[in-house]
Amino acid sequence: MIEFWIADFKSEDTVISIPACTGSWEFRRRDDYATVLSKIEEGQCSATYYAYNESVTHQTTDQDFDAVTGELIDICLIFSFFTATCVTPKGTTPQSDAIFLDLGDSFVRPRAIAGFPALQINTTYSDFFSGGIARFAGQFQSRRLRLFLSHWISGLTCFSLEDLFLSVGVQMDIIKQCEIAATGRKLTYYDGMLSASSRYGIQPLTDDYKNMRNDIVHEGVLSGSNFKSKNKEQGD
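Above: the chain sequence. Below: its structure as tokens.
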């Protein structure tokens, strides 16, 4: 059995079972959940749950091990998106048969994030994941969701408007690259945004967004008076 501490996961579910490519990941709330939760609300980073998979043993092949731990990373990224925190494995527990002194680069590093509202999904996490994490594999691969959600988590830690806008710009560029792969056409940054908007039936971004992005990425400044419709004070 392998067992990880899970950092900063907040949930009403005390037990969550998620089918995996090998066995299932069982998330269980710590007995002292209320105590460690108060630390998170104060801006600290703490392990609130632990997740184990009894089917992962010393006999598990490297390929299967990478696959099943990769699914754990994806599960935690989805939890992060739902809760607007950084839910991620934070080392192995003393009960784990396999002990890691340090987690690899594929794992998202823990970080304290507070002050953002969680999404209301109107179901339990066990029900949401009842079909297993494998049913999301296609979306994670085709839409680069692991990369996208990792940048999204970093966006929650931005300390300034410039940082936040740059983070959004990076995420939009990931979308552009996905559109290039999906359509087989060479697309500019803005055309990639328009293509994604059309594909998913959402309102496209305006030219103002493109111009603001170009100002901060290429010029290193907020737009200010670069727009005729507003003055520098409005831009700042």
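The two ends are 54 Å apart (CA to CA).
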